[in-house]
Amino acid sequence: MHRAVLIELGARSLREVQRSRHRVLEAMQVQTWDQGRCLGGRPPYGYQLVEIGPHPNPAHARWARNCPASRQIR
């Protein structure tokens, strides 16, 4: 009986973690699209972003063109 209770509590905890993760990720995506940014954040401390030319993978390059931030730059 004790083991069944612990298993049930573990299952409920896992469901709560999954629901929270889904809710937070969804909110982050909506917020970034509303602000005209893409997920990824700032570069780590000490790194600097530089332009290196077109993306080597055309499929990924098309995905980046759909980002609102890329539309604002052009």
How does this structure look, described?
The chain is mainly alpha-helical and 74 residues long. It contains 3 helices and no strands.
Can you summarize this structure?
With 74 residues, the protein is mainly α. The protein has three helices and no strands.
Which key features would you list for this structure?
about 70 residues; mainly alpha; 3 helices; elongated
Write the layout of secondary structure elements.
Blueprint: H1 2-35, H2 58-65, H3 68-73
Q: Which structural class fits the helix and strand makeup?
A: mainly alpha
Rg calculated over all Cα atoms: 20 Å
Tell how many strands the DSSP assignment holds: 0
Total count of helical runs of at least 4 residues: 3
- Secondary-structure element series: HHH
